[in-house]
Amino acid sequence: MAEIKAKQVMELRKKSGAGIMDAKKALVASDGDMDKAMDWLREKGIAKAAKKSDRIAAEGLTNIAVDGNTAVIVELNSETDFVAASDPFKESLADVTKVLLENKPADLDAALASKTANGTLNDDLISTTQKTGEKVSLRRFAFVNKEDGDNFGVYLHQGGRIAALVVLQGADEETAKDVAMHVAAVNPEFMTREEVPADRLAHEREVFKEETLNEGKPEKIVDKIVEGRLNKFLSQICLADQDFVKDPDVTVAEYVESKGGKLKSFIRYEVGEGIEKKQSDLAAEVKEQLK
Questions:
Q1: What PANTHER family would the database entry show (predicted)?
Q2: Residue 159 pLDDT > 80
Q3: What is the dihedral of CA 31, 32, 35, 36, to 10 degrees?
């Protein structure tokens, strides 16, 4: 049996919202596996599915730029939010976005090798690093193309902490921006139910089944309850089925259709999502410097 450390218990508690004892029981039952422990808590009705965005860590900003039928979404990282708010960093982000849109590189290596007035994009980032005193790095970017009859929806939240880029077939720019604002706020994982992988559906169905059985529901109605819960889960993670934030009486798909449009695609960037942030111990750092 794996040794369960207090740090693991606290991490699971924060991730699940469960109590300390429940978190420890889940880790013991799962032999220290965090994902299995999370499933154990959900099956017991103690925790709900955690969103990927809970792991947000690194600092920086995102940006979006549009040129005709092409748009680019970008994330530029720094070590602290103080630097991310500085003029040199914001200027660098604008320059990086412009270079990407002009050159349309195929990948990160090609992007960094893109020619600029001062050499390459990588040279420019090194220069920004020297100005700010922190490493400034291009983490990711993506290009999105649309047809002439389509509309881009662009929205930056909190000055660029979150960026959402949407494409609608038909409708208009105002509708597309409304949907982009919804994407930024609600963070859907998929466009439609059909895009959800079969293994993900099977996993969630099994978790809901265990949860329902543990609640003592009659076995003859368990499958019906499970399907109801699965449908509710899908309506929460799929953009088309989500209640529209500006009018919860309709789904996002219904809202777009009422404006003569159809959902085509979306991308959402949130600064640092999925990056493990280095944890600092201020007291330890001061003590080390005093030696």
A1: ELONGATION FACTOR TS, ELONGATION FACTOR TS, MITOCHONDRIAL
A2: yes
A3: 20
